[in-house]
Amino acid sequence: MNAVDLLRSPNTVLANAVDDALDVLRPRLLETGAERIEFTVGTQLNGRPHIGTHLVQSLSFLVAERARDEFGIETVVDFVALDNAPAETITRDGRKYQLSYHHQRGAHGIRALVAEHYSPLLKAMTRRTGVEFRVGTYTGQQAGPEFRAEFLRTLEHLDEIRFWLAPARGIAHIRLPCPVCGWAEKHADHTRLLELDGSGALFEARCHAHGRYETDVTPLGGGYLDLATLCRNVVKERSCRPEDSTLHVMVKGGDWAFGCQLVDGAHAAIGTSAAPVPLRIFTPQILGSDGGKLSKSLLNATADAGDPSRGSTAEWLLNPAVWPGTQADYVEALTGVGELMLSDPRHFYRSYTTTALETLMTSRRPARNQPQAHGRPRSIQIYKQYFDLIADGSKTVEVRVAYDSMKRVKAGDLLNFTCRGEECLTRVKRIGRYRTFKEMFGTEDVKAVNPNATAAEQLRAVQAIFPPHKEALGVLTFEIERVDADE
Ligand SMILES: [Zn+2]
């Protein structure tokens, strides 16, 4: 028995309602007919990331990979560095002021931070899953006309939403940094909305060094707009536009499940937005020994207080740079745990202590060498014209790009092709591996791939779907035979 075999996860409300963790995406996919999913993962800049941050980021790629393979549509990861996080704070006359990472480091400094602390894992996950990613910043987001226009719309409803955004005092923390030095009032104590009309908003605020100042916000310009977490999420979620039939999904740490009630309250108070607000996927929370969320500041505080539980947390959980192995091993272990979590909704919609995570990550046998979860057939969504050909037995060879998830398919595995509620269960008889589509069509029986098109027509069609950098991953063919569902 190893740790992976010993993992037991009780049922929960959400896990009980689904077969797969990603089934939560299906209602919206059916409703919108989206052709692409963008998974957004935001990370608060705060020095070196710990295991909790790395887990959310790697899970974003694994979720995107699984969604691509399950639903048969393009998926991408959108990584947002939240560079409005406070880098420094000071107190003057009883008021707190803060300087964001953006204002402290500048755009060049933020790029350097991302390159040092985040890019290596993101690139490794792309190599692993074939899912591409894009890097953005909060600073870029707040400068966008859609974000700013949506913010101005929320101001029109400030009275209705202010207690949703700040249930205790009703003062939403909208920070407009000083145009001279970039410092802003942390709690917006002296920040006032002076004017609001069709063209924009005018605020007054106070700087600890430069006194009172005014700053405006318009859709196309004006001052830097630093919104506190809840307000930022309300504006960001509402400013996702449904253009190019993309479904937006926010990937968030599990502690957000408690906070989203307030975001939803604000959405409801503002009223219907231009598009349905994005879906959210909450990833497992990583908890310290007493059940509190893993955080550096908490652990440092307990260490200072001489708390003995500090000693039980492996140093690499807080600082992955001291992981006892190569960087490649670390990514392998992280991926193995992520895939284990995704293999059963009960393993996904739950939390893990640092002790459990340490055991899973250092156990000998990673999840990817495990047999298929539950011995269940793998679902593959496919276009109607190909589905019909498989169902009537005339298409017996299916072609796929060699993503890692597809490379795990073995002869004898069951593949369940699905299309608009119809299913066709097949068994893999043989697997072909090729460097290019051209090589594949030179070897496979073209009529078994598609009896209705020539090799040249099929090559053009498949190359139109998969650009050269995807083809470069390699090409797989599955020779399949139909299986009666009751077999
Ligand atoms: Zn100033």
TrEMBL record:
Matching SMART domains: ASCH
Domain ASCH, residue spans: 380-482
Cross-referenced InterPro entries: ASCH_domain, PUA-like_sf
Give the protein's recorded name.
Answer: ASCH domain-containing protein
